[in-house]
Amino acid sequence: MQEPWADLLAAISQEVTSDESFLTGTNAAWLTAGQRATKWLGQPGASEAALAQLEGRLQQPLPPSYRAFLAASNGFGPIDYFIYNLHPAHEVAWLIEREAELVELWERAPTLAGSPLLADEHYLRYDGSPPEGALRPGHLRQCLLISDWGDAGFLVLNPAVRHEGEWEAWHFANWYPGAVRYRSFLALMEASLASFRELRPPLS
What we know:
10 helices
């Protein structure tokens, strides 16, 4: 399995498959019998041909950490209490192709259309500082949808903002005023694991 994904995906799998809400509680429907037995939430990695085919559809190379993830596990989930399934390569698509109405409604929202643009020094901080959830108009329709809808939200990658070849990664949710943004898909997944551990009830 591709590094650093081997340890990270194994850790997420261990956390989720040992959590009571996914075993017998409200999230139990999201785990299969096979996942319970193996304590593994992933699928076999995508072939180089499958990755090349996806890049051909997108007409551009994938960001490195996301490409390495697909090579390690072509589909994965649930990853936490909010996102239940990361798409395999053949299901990945531009958000505007799958959720055109949502994109258009969001772009017309007064809270977005009327917000002043933030300077890069504030917009690209990724430290949770205000204004949390801020998005730049027009970016949503450029995003790549990489997950199913989970708990009223989904994950996307934003090629309009790049850091050393990585695309900005978002957790976009109806219950959040915008999106939680990260420098890369790897950073998002690491933060997701850390958040899951913080939210998880203590073992009885």
